[in-house]
Design goal:
The chain has 298 residues and is of the alpha+beta class. It contains 14 helices and seven strands. The protein has two domains: 124 residues, Butyryl-CoA Dehydrogenase, subunit A, domain 3, CATH 1.20.140.160; 119 residues, Nuclear Transport Factor 2, Chain: A, CATH 3.10.450.50. It is globular, with a radius of gyration of 20 Å.
C-alpha cells in the first residue's frame, strides 16, 4: 500500500466526525460534504509526518474551511436564518426511518443535535460558532482553536462562553425519552387532524416558537405562542392527513407526503412533555433530496 493510500485510509477513519463538525458549523449536508472534501485536498498536499493527532489536525482544518464558508455567506448577505423581516432558512434535516438512525448518520445527529439547536447555532457569528462547536461539542482545546480565529486562547474562551449562554437560553435540551416524545407528536397530529384547538394548546409550551421554511419560491414564517401555533397547525392539518413517522435528527418527527412525494418535514423539540419548538421544512428543492426508499422502506 502506497503512502497516499495509507493517508486516504486514515482520512476515511475520521470522515464521520469531520462530517459531524461541518454539519454543526454549516447546517447544510451538501456544504458539509464540500468542506470535508476540501479538508482531504489540504491533507493530501500537506506533510503530516510530524502530526501526532491527525484527527485533531483534521478537525481544525475542517473548522477553518467552514469558517471561511460562513464568512463568505455573510459577505454575500446570505443569512441562513430569519431576521427582522421574518425570513427563515432552516438547516438541512437528517431524515431517517422511525426504527432508528442508520450508522451513516449516527455521528451527524449525536449529542441531541436537533434542528432547534442548529437554528440557534446558525444565529451565532462565524467566530462564536467555531469556538463553541469545536470546544463544547468536540472538546478541542482553546489553544488549538485560537490560531484558526487569529485570536488569543483567552479571547477564544470568551467567544465560546458567550455562545454557550445564547445556546442555553434559546435551545432547550429535548426530552431523552423518545417513546414519550413520539406519543406527544402523535397526539399533536391527532388533535390537528381533528381540529381540536384546546387539545393542541394543551400539548404546546405557552412560549412555543414555530418556524417554517418554504425555500426561495415559497413564503417562510415565524410564529410564537401556543394559541397562534395551534391555530396554524389546524389549518396545516391537510398535510398531517398523509403523515408518516420518521426521525428528524434522531428525534421523533413527521414526513408528510402528497402523491408519493415529500411535502413537508416537521421537526419537534419536546421538553417536559410539551412541544417547545416546531420546525417545518416545505422547500421543494431540499425535500426532493430525501431518499424515500431508505427512510420509509417501501
Amino acid at each position: 500500500m502506497s503512502e497516499q493510500d495509507t493517508l486516504a485510509r486514515r482520512f476515511e477513519e475520521h470522515r464521520p466526525q469531520l462530517r459531524a463538525v461541518a454539519y454543526r458549523m454549516l447546517g447544510s449536508l451538501s456544504e458539509s460534504e464540500d468542506a470535508v472534501q476540501e479538508a482531504w485536498l489540504k491533507l493530501s498536499r500537506s506533510d503530516v509526518t510530524s502530526v501526532g493527532n491527525l484527527g485533531g489536525w483534521l478537525t481544525t482544518v475542517v473548522g477553518r474551511v467552514c469558517l471561511d464558508m460562513l464568512r463568505s455567506r455573510t459577505s454575500r448577505r446570505e443569512d441562513p436564518l430569519y431576521g427582522q423581516e421574518g425570513y427563515v432558512r432552516l438547516p438541512d434535516p437528517v431524515v431517517t426511518g422511525p426504527a432508528g438512525v442508520d450508522p451513516e448518520h449516527e455521528v451527524l445527529v449525536a449529542d441531541s443535535v436537533g434542528i432547534a439547536l442548529l437554528v440557534v447555532l446558525g444565529a451565532l457569528g462565524p467566530a462564536e460558532r467555531l469556538a463553541f462547536v469545536l470546544h463544547d461539542l468536540f472538546a478541542v482545546p482553546f489553544d488549538e482553536i485560537a490560531p484558526v480565529l487569529g485570536r488569543t486562547a483567552a479571547s477564544t474562551r470568551q467567544l465560546a462562553s458567550r455562545a454557550r449562554r445564547r445556546v442555553q437560553d434559546a435551545a432547550p435540551t429535548p426530552d431523552a425519552d423518545l417513546v414519550r416524545t413520539r406519543e406527544v407528536v402523535d397526539a399533536f397530529l391527532s388533535a390537528a387532524r381533528g381540529g381540536d384547538l384546546d387539545a393542541l394548546v394543551d400539548l404546546l409550551d405557552p412560549e412555543i416558537i414555530a418556524r417554517s421554511d418554504g425555500g426561495a419560491l415559497r413564503p417562510s414564517a415565524v410564529r410564537r405562542g401556543a394559541t397562534q401555533v395551534a391555530s396554524q397547525a389546524i389549518t396545516f392539518a391537510r398535510f398531517a392527513a398523509a403523515a408518516r413517522p420518521v426521525l428528524v435528527n434522531g428525534l421523533p418527527g413527521v414526513l408528510a407526503l402528497a402523491e408519493g412525494k415529500p411535502l413537508s418535514v416537521m421537526a419537534f423539540t419536546v421538553k417536559d412533555g410539551k412541544v417547545v419548538a416546531l420546525d417545518i421544512l416545505t422547500d421543494p428543492e431540499r425535500l426532493a433530496r430525501i431518499d424515500l426508499e431508505a427512510v420509509l422502506g417501501d
